[in-house]
Amino acid sequence: MIKSSYLFILFLFLMKNAHSQRLEFYREDLTFYLGKDYFSVKGDYYFKNKTQKDVKTILMYPFPNNVSSGYVDSVYATRKMKAENCVKSVSGNKFMMFDVFVRANDTAIYEIGYRQKHISGYATYILTTTQRWGKPFDTVNYTLVVKDLVVDSISYVPDAVKFTEENTTYFWHKRAFMPDRDFEVLFH
To answer: Looking at CB atoms within 10 Å, which of 31, 34, 144, 170 has the fewest?
Structure first.
């Protein structure tokens, strides 16, 4: 319990640090892959600096860590257009720390991904931490690709679904999106 409290306080400190520097997290374009054994996330995360000074900070990226989530076996964070590794550290199944740098009055895109074993017909991606940024996303685009499984429910109703012989793909596009729950998929 003490360790969890410490991690939460550290997370709040890092988020406050990013806010005090006027860094905005304004968009994400993500693809989720759900297969027989693993749930993976790959996508672009967009940051904006509206100040006259460069912003350099470290952010925490949390992983689902519950009884239905298995071990996170691979993670990465790279700055687009630079192809540089930005991962500072990984704390097992809990979170990753990564560097973010955005020049004054500019934007930066980071590609981030991870793969996690699923255990009992449940997969999740943490969305609710977006609330700590204090403003909704301008735009989000989510795609869920499901192979060899049947989806029972998804926490957000998709805008469209495409069925092929190989997989089922769900699509979401939202504007002014402030998540009120995490992205959760129940399946068998």
So the answer is: 31
Find the helix or strand (DSSP H, E) in which 159 lies.
Answer: none
Whole-prediction pTM = 0.86
Q: Which two structure tokens, joined as six digits, stand for 75? A: 């993670």
Distances 125 to 16, 86, 121 between C-alpha atoms, Å: 22, 21, 14
Question: What range does the domain containing 75 cover?
Answer: 2-187
pLDDT digits (tens, 9 = 90+) for 63-87: 988 766 788 889 999 998 777 788 9
Number of domains in the chain: 1
Task: Return the CATH number at 179.
Answer: 2.60.40.3680
Residue 50: which H helix or E strand, with range? Answer: none
Quote the radius of gyration of the chain (alpha carbons, Å).
17
